[in-house]
Amino acid sequence: MIIKDLSTLESDFCRQATVNTGSVRVRSMDIDMEYSLFVYYFKDYIHLSLSRYDDKDINEEVWEQLQDMGMIYPDVGLTDVEDMWINKEKQQLHAKLHYKDVIKWENGD
After folding, report:
1. How confident is the prediction along the chain (109 residues), in pLDDT tens digits per residue?
2. Residue 28 forms beta bridges with which residues?
């Protein structure tokens, strides 16, 4: 899987999403030019939202492939999962990951 961090290119969206969601930080990524991944950092957890660019159904297989990577640099550990679910209506996969170091992003560091 090839993951491109698009947060710099989509910085206005990421800033606005941070305000709208109450998260500490938001990152936007592209996976294999097939999926979009949003990483929402909250005080004590990370929320992932994964969706396809096309109309095909999303399934657990892509989550398993992503988990096999182990980590998205620098701080998204994909093996410390608290919960994972699929919203079939919106064709989105969501995951809640344990995270303890979000505070370091509060000042943009």
Report:
1. 899 999 988 899 899 999 999 999 999 999 999 999 999 999 889 999 999 999 889 989 989 998 998 888 888 888 889 999 999 999 999 999 987 654 454 445 4
2. 38
Q: Are strands 35-41 and 45-52 parallel, antiparallel or unpaired?
A: antiparallel
Which residue in this structure is represented by tokens 């998260």?
A: 23
Residue type, 20: N
ω into 74 cis (within 30 of 0): yes
Q: How far is CA 80 from CA 49, 105, 107, in A?
A: 16, 20, 25
Q: Which residue has the tokens 């936007």?
A: 28
* Pairing mode of beta strands 35-41, 25-31: antiparallel
